[in-house]
From TrEMBL:
Record-level Gene Ontology MF annotations: ATP binding; DNA binding; DNA-directed DNA polymerase activity; metal ion binding
CDD domains xref list: AAA (cd00009), HLD_clamp_pol_III_gamma_tau (cd18137)
Annotated spans, Disordered: 400-447
Pfam family of the protein (one): DNA_pol3_delta2
Lineage: Bacteria, Bacillati, Bacillota, Clostridia, Lachnospirales
Family: Belongs to the DnaX/STICHEL family.
Gene of this entry: dnaX
UniProt GO BP: DNA-templated DNA replication
Protein name: DNA-directed DNA polymerase
Gene3D superfamilies assigned to the protein according to its UniProt record, in alphabetical order: 1.10.8.60, 1.20.272.10, P-loop containing nucleotide triphosphate hydrolases
Catalytic class of the enzyme: transferase
Organism: Candidatus Enterocloster faecavium
Domain AAA+ ATPase: 37-179
InterPro entries: AAA+_ATPase, DNA_pol3_clamp-load_cplx_C, DNA_pol_III_gamma-3, DNA_pol_III_sug/sutau_N, DNA_Rep/Repair_Clamp_Loader, HLD_clamp_pol_III_gamma_tau, P-loop_NTPase
Amino acid sequence: MSYTALYRKWRPISFEDVKGQDPIVQTLKNQITSERVGHAYLFCGTRGTGKTSIAKIFARAVNCQNPVDGSPCNECPSCKAILEGSSMNVVEIDAASNNGVENIRDIREQVQYPPTDGRYRVYIIDEVHMLSIGAFNALLKTLEEPPSYVIFILATTEVHKIPITILSRCQRYDFKRISLETIADRLRELTQAEHIQVEDKALLYVAKAADGSLRDALSLLDQCVAFHFGTLLTYDNVLEVLGAVDSGIFSQMFGAVVRGDTRQAILTLEELVVQGRELGQFVTDFIWYLRNLLLLKSTDDAEGLLDMSTENQKQLQEDAELADSNTLMRYIRIFSDLSNQLRYASQKRVLVEVAMIRLTKPAMEENLDSVLERLKFLEEQVEDLEARPAGFAAAQTAGTLGPAAGEMPGDGTPEGSRTGARPQNTGEHVPASPSAPQPPKQVALPKAQMEDLNLIRNEWGKLVRALGGGARAYLRDTVVEPSGDSCLTIVFMDSMNYDMGKRPTVIGQLESMVQEKYGRSIYFKTRLAARGESFNTIYVTQEELEEKIHMDITYEEE
């Protein structure tokens, strides 16, 4: 015996079986009981919400010999014939494949003949928006003045494509998306009837993934049950089959994004890819997660709008405290744009990674909400610097605000190279000053080196801002230290910025700008700050030190 898919087996056969469309059902039942049946109906709404099912129920009800409160009995000869598809009174047409003028002309010829049995001939035209302009024009006259025994039911998911002349001749019914609770209740009902063992949490996720479509929910459930047939269908099983991601991953990802930890965000994404999760589904679910965060930030009593457990709501509340509403809206905008791009993309992972970098690096964008986020970041940075030693404060703000005079970092030992040789350290962005600040060391430089250092030190903020684009973001949170004649070393505090900022294209652009603006041929090396490194060295010229005999003199090695 052949297997029947759940969405076909459990298609409603009476108005009482229809879920989530109560106002429409009640209106149609009232028309039948009061014998005020119209001649043309337009059912519009998203897929899987019951348009075709209600059309078929309505077709049986108007021809039923023993209707019960407006619903068909499904037992009389007329109802049975329509259910079996053998009745000549109900004609179903798929406009996607029968959209020409000749198809509509066939209908116009058929409507001239009254039904042999029953009261009405019902024409159900599915996906009616697919009809050609000529076909719509051919249908127009018949639709306007049909015989008294003819009913047209037009169904569509894209009502905006239907000519206004057609719309004005139909009773329009808008089918809304079915609520999560209604879909979940229906899934519980049929799994019990089908003797399917399933966790309630798994059913809730299937209902959520269906996005308001009961038919999609049944198809997804059918898919999951088939993969784990004969065993308890768990939440993890559903995630595995649908390529979805557990909600805890979203909290982990969101935390990395808010901290600006690009590396951790990319690593989390890497784990999802290795696990075989579908990136399009991940993006959709992450947008929904961000939407929930925004609701918590924007409304006083958002718990009633969130379909999740108390435990998950508690975690969501904690995450909502990490970002403001403007930041959340920027995240949603970026991921919504990404969702549209993924539909036609061949390299989905690259697009998702770029979006993650955009989330963690607002300096890479020029729109208003990213500028606001960068201003907020700078305000927090200034507040943080006020509580830190002066030497490190200068080092931290050099890339954006410019260091104070006499507070340039470095110990006078040139490290790295023009290509950015990386020192042996953890690569983490950590405070470089020790817990017990050491007294600043005085280092003497030749006059020419001191002039180069002072020039770049005083203009560093302007230079970084003038670079613009990605280079501007990479050189944020950097400082400059001497490294010999006509040479300076850029010290990076963040490992990912170091990897990007040390590239020859970035350094070459900086050197060209210095040559153009100041007429100086200065070349730059790069290195990454070591853990616990001190940034309170004071640089002076040899003449300045020699004038102060009481001070220890240390000469910079070339």
